[in-house]
Amino acid sequence: MRPEFRALRAKQLERALETFASAKNSSRPQKGWLRAIREATGISLREMATRLKKTPTLAAKLEKSEAEYRITLASLRDAADALGCQLVYALVPKNGSVHDLAEQVARMKAAENVRAVEHSMALEDQPVGGIEDKIEEETRRILKKARNK
User: Fold this and answer.
1) With a threshold of 0.85, does the pTM exceed it?
2) Helix 131-148 crosses helix 98-123 at what angle (to 10 degrees)?
3) Which of 14, 21, 24, 59 is deepest in the core (most CB within 10 A)?
4) Class for domain 22-82, per CATH?
5) What is the mean pLDDT of each run of 10 residues along the chain (149 residues)?
6) Would you kindly state where each structural domain of the chain is located, as residue ranges?
């Protein structure tokens, strides 16, 4: 992706993810959202199964697979729909923003590049030193290069 479009995309993602920022700190019900919503709304497993056009055994397996993080998004969407809910899906950075993630990736690449050069130079008995400063400098170069491509 061209850098100018990457920066625009990052800004768009930042705006779109704002609404999810507080949700990332919420805990999921221990037995999963499907079961929690179904029980809170008074829908029986048999009724949910009927709405899904599945057997109660399969509906129970859906709930179990969601609680164990093994459910597919398509199945979760169908089950949510059967419960009168909408599946909302997002990937939210654990710490900071999308921009911060891009910087972390650049810093990891920079550290790899600088340490490889430092290692080669040390083998030739010419260590450069100041590795952290070099990593910062390389990080800035990588980010600038990404913006100017």
Assistant:
1) no
2) 130
3) 59
4) mainly alpha
5) 76 90 88 97 97 97 97 97 95 86 85 79 67 80 71
6) 1-18+94-149, 22-82
